[in-house]
Amino acid sequence: MTLDELESFVAIATGGGVTQASRALHRSQPAISRRIRQLERSLAAPLFERAGRGVRLTAAGRALLPHAEAVLAAAGDARRAVRTLAAKAQGAPPLRLALVGTLADLYLVKALRAFRTRFGAASIELRTATSREVSALVRRGEADLGLRYFADPDPALATRPLGRERLEVMVPARHRIRSKRVSSLRAFEGEKWLGFPPDPRHPESTGEVLLRQLHAGGLAHAALTPVDSLTAQKRLVEAGLGVALLPRSAVREELRRRTLRSVAVASLRAEQPIVAVERKRGARHPHATAFLEILARSTPQLR
Question: Which pTM does this prediction carry?
């Protein structure tokens, strides 16, 4: 098997099909398909099967995927090590940072400014994704460091806790509950809740956190409208179309403008851990430790 074959395999597995892999790798679809056929011949096993308009991994494909990702990540480490040595006089390459999009808005700005002041304007490259995608980018070597919600159990990743983000109930400015504090979530009986789509395969997801809180608060049958955008959730709450469980730091501007209100719930203990993830056996970026130290100093509220 070759790196080109493994690269095509991973691109199809993560993108969902040959068309997506062709676009991602800038190769023709026949070239991608040819690589996969060669890889399947060398392994004597089919790696994909049809699934509607796309494909899905076979048992052999699922077994191969983590090893293929590790091989490609190691090859990327080797390339970067040589390029870093060749360009040593010009300093380290940019730190490639993948993070959950909401963290970019909440905690990162001050840390980024301090990091760029210290290491230069071209010292960092940002990429936003979901928590699961952040881990995948780090695992594949496409990011040096990831910031996500909840620890990742993947043994290939090292997880460093950064702190915890408290969640609060947000309501529109003219909501029927006028007090700043209630005793339990039962005060919101009959309300429609807005939140990220629950995914039982991933209990750490924000949607699952909301479901658990509603169950614990006696609202197991509450109406839940899935909304996969934090901004959309805020706008819908402002419009009076529901209430939401959100981090206060994500709605500072709305609270300042008084288009949203926070209602404290005495019995509610809802938090989201924020962690940094790196590959355990990957080549560590020379500025990764410095960035995490700057981030910790810039976000004392997380600790």
Answer: 0.69
